[in-house]
Amino acid sequence: MSPRRRDSASRLRWMHDRLLQAYGPQAWWPAQSSFEVVLGAYLTQNTSWKAVERSLANLAAAGALSPDGFRALSVDELRELIRPSGFATRKAPALKAFMSMLDKEFEGSLNELAALPTEPLRMRLLGLFGVGPETADAILLYALGHAVPVADEYLRRIAGRHGLIKPPPAKNRAGYEALVQLTRNAFDADQETAQFFNEFHALAVAVGKAHCRKKAVCDGCPLAADLPPGGPRQIG
DNA sequence: CGCCAGGCCGTGT
DNA sequence: ACACGGCATGGC
Description:
Layout: H1 8-23, H2 34-43, H3 49-61, H4 67-71, H5 75-81, H6 88-106, H7 110-114, H8 118-126, H9 133-143, H10 153-161, H11 173-186, H12 194-211
Helix pairs in contact: 1-11, 1-12, 2-3, 2-9, 5-6, 8-9, 10-12
The protein binds a DNA duplex through residues 40-41, 44-52, 54, 83-90, 94, 129-135, 138, 150, 152-154, 170-174, 201, 204-205, 208-209, 213-215.
């Protein structure tokens, strides 16, 4: 039966099942340590993962993928190492601010940071320079193991093109929270685990990279059966 | 070459 | 509250 004409929660569940069937488990985040997840979460802001990999390779060569190695870098050295992934004049001090917070209040330990309750922890992250809602939630989920949904530009486009949210999809804070709520409402309480949200966001990125970039490439998309009659509703 | 990338911040309404 | 420009570099 067609998923069309059903409520957005059902359709989002259908999307999850369809994507899992099409792509399989994604085993995210692509990193060797929680600290590396944090670095990647900052570096990938409005930046292709390909470029992030170049910066991470530079950091690895400098021995700076661990807190100890990273702490030893000056902000100027850091800026040069992460230059390939762009916005380095912003991202270098932002990362140093995270490290500084971790050292001063959590003995340099991500585990101690992760021990805070989710909501205060999220507020804490959002208060950091260079951390918005998506970066905060990515760190919460993929580095700290908290069960929160992660919304991103791909999910925003998917929801927009499929008419799950009223177009044009807002790119502001309220729009982000609406996507998070959409995800929370779609799944049962017993599915609201870190493992599940982990997989859901990873699948959204997988289909996004393949079919939901700015140029519409809905042809061959596993989710195409759910598109409104006449094609995607909203491209940008 | 021009457009875009796994956002966020500062400023102006 | 919301829109909008700026931010840096590299891939395609």
